[in-house]
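Problem: given the chain below (348 residues), write out its structure.
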Amino acid sequence: MTALDVGRRRVVLRIRGSSLVIGVRSAVVGLIVTLVTVLLGLLALALGDFPITIAEVVGVLTGQVDALPRIVVLEWRLPRAAAAVLFGAALAVAGAIFQTVTRNPLASPDIIGLANGSFTGMLVALLVLGGSWPLLTAGSLIGGLLAAVLIYLLAYRGGLHGFRFIVVGIGISAMLASVNTWMLLRVELETALFASAWGAGTMNSVTALTAVPAGLCIVLLLALLPLVAPAMRQLDLGDDAASASGVAVGRARLLAIALAVCLVSVVTAVAGPIAFVALAAPQITRRLTQSPGIPLVTTGLVGGALLLGSDLIAQHVIPLTVPVGVVTVVLGGGYLVWLLIHESRRRA
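Solution.
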């Protein structure tokens, strides 16, 4: 690090000839959200059928407490809590990518059918090839990519327009949802119950065995963000402005969408299609940071906090344990209604 310039609204961090621009408000929001996530994480590790105090949780994490609390915290609850943060971040970043490349706040993987496409691929892998995690992940990835390619081809008319992309995606989503329901009706009851619970979006089946490889995949995919982030900032200004600045619009958009589809597919393979996190997190972040674009890092932090908080509500607030996807649908549905009313009033 050679220099640090602090302006009124941003920090320019120069490291060995490279520079990183960080919005001050985005950094403050990110810090606050991180603290909230840490508090939620401590609650997630403490609450359950075997309650543990926060002090014991901290003791386990710092290696000062052993025996049964260590097993409960590290082996039972930590994989699920860590997965919720990572999965929420992956979904939020995927939503930010779609909303940026289409320049539409309603563009989200679950709205335009990619989550249903991943679920279709996962169901095919489950019913035809068996239920191992690598096969389910591959099926989910292929299903999501095929759905994205189909939507892209059907929506492309000399360019990709956000409204047409979303309308085509909603249609494809409805078709894939019908296919998924038909497949569930054709299989044995036990398999249908298992797949249906998965299809609602649940963290109940997350263990260290599935959370670790999925988490590694997500970290690797998020590490690729710097490759597409500069082009996304230009795409947020419009195709003409991006082209004028030297961005290969078509290739940049395809790379960004492929990265978003991979993020959604990894999450879907483990936890099923969790709705509305990808839709809500980028817009919540945009309003909190008051940024003209969608800051990806802060969006990922907000997504992690949203899913972890929703999972806590699903486990401990509602009398019956419900899939976390039910909670996100309820919260996200209210947010979607608010967003539609806000947008209609803004354009009136």
